[in-house]
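Quick note —
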Amino acid sequence: MSWIDDRIKQREAAYRRFVLIDEGAPIIFSKLWDAITPWVEEARKKGVPVLTNGTPHERIVILSTPVPVGQSRSDPKHLTLSLAKDRSGIVVDGIGWEAMKLIFDVNNDGAVCIKQNGEEASISDLAISLLDQFFFPEFASKDSL
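Predicted structure written out below.
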């Protein structure tokens, strides 16, 4: 076998990986949103002024900020989750620092997964972490995501 054969196999493996991720990306994006919405509803029931909006490929959590006495009303905060156009990951914006990207990958079992900082992450843990930092930024650190 020559190096050309090796490269052909690599190309085929890369294509299979691409197809798996391309097909799995919207499903994982939807599962993450499905994990977020019950927490948003619980927060709403407990008095947090929050609502959701968006499209199938861009979801938004909107948080009205309390207005201190004597100050004018401020704009609501937005937590935006967008499926990357190339379906390589989820772009998260609105947690107080620059936008970040959660990357899709194929794990050792051949299933599409989501990675954060190079490590496979649980969808439920991601949902909690994102909302915790969004709802309660005073307790968040940049290292928590």
